[in-house]
Amino acid sequence: MSATTAEDHYPVDCPFCGIAQTYPSPISQISNSDDLKSCVPDVVDAEKVSPSCHLVLSAPEVLAFLDIMPMTMGHLLVTTRSHRLKIEHVPGNEASDIGFWLPILAKAVSQTVGVTDYNIVQNNGPRAAQVVPHVHFHIIPRPESVPTIQNKSWTMFGRGKRDDLDDDEAANLAAEIRRQIRKELDHRSRNQSNL
């Protein structure tokens, strides 16, 4: 019996690589707070890719955009710009950048949707529920009233009822998340200058 490979479970084209190519970073390296803010686009043409991509962050090593089949309002994906199959394939500099952006993005989502509880989930491989073969983290807000579901794994692993993202609502939601990211970056910049 031969071993199966990742290619046996995944499509040939990686949708996240397509997003990375379509929305390049405006800078190649971050060296100050203005560079950080330049990674948060003012306006995004969500229809440059199909399905639409509601981008909130386009940094040199990291991208963030709304999940096209969100579990809850504000469900955000955070991914490496370069194609990496599993977390073990992410080099240190990219891992550091993801580690920098995750708390900022989680706070921005939390502020936007008004939910203080959330999961950050990252799956590796098809048996671990990784659907897209590209490292990504889910930031999933957990509102007080959760959808009625039949599969109780929703509570732990982020699975369960999912609906298609409405493009008009998503455009407004992404714009507000981007505003909240900029607000958090300003807050952090002020706090660093006061040290």
TrEMBL record:
<dbReference type="GO" id="GO:0003824">
    <property type="term" value="F:catalytic activity"/>
</dbReference>
<dbReference type="Pfam" id="PF01230">
    <property type="entry name" value="HIT"/>
</dbReference>
<dbReference type="InterPro" id="IPR001310">
    <property type="entry name" value="Histidine_triad_HIT"/>
</dbReference>
<dbReference type="InterPro" id="IPR019808">
    <property type="entry name" value="Histidine_triad_CS"/>
</dbReference>
<feature type="active site" description="Tele-AMP-histidine intermediate">
    <location>
        <position position="136"/>
    </location>
</feature>
<dbReference type="InterPro" id="IPR036265">
    <property type="entry name" value="HIT-like_sf"/>
</dbReference>
<feature type="domain" description="HIT">
    <location>
        <begin position="42"/>
        <end position="154"/>
    </location>
</feature>
<dbReference type="GO" id="GO:0009117">
    <property type="term" value="P:nucleotide metabolic process"/>
</dbReference>
<protein>
    <submittedName>
        <fullName>HIT-like protein</fullName>
    </submittedName>
</protein>
<dbReference type="InterPro" id="IPR011146">
    <property type="entry name" value="HIT-like"/>
</dbReference>
<feature type="short sequence motif" description="Histidine triad motif">
    <location>
        <begin position="134"/>
        <end position="138"/>
    </location>
</feature>
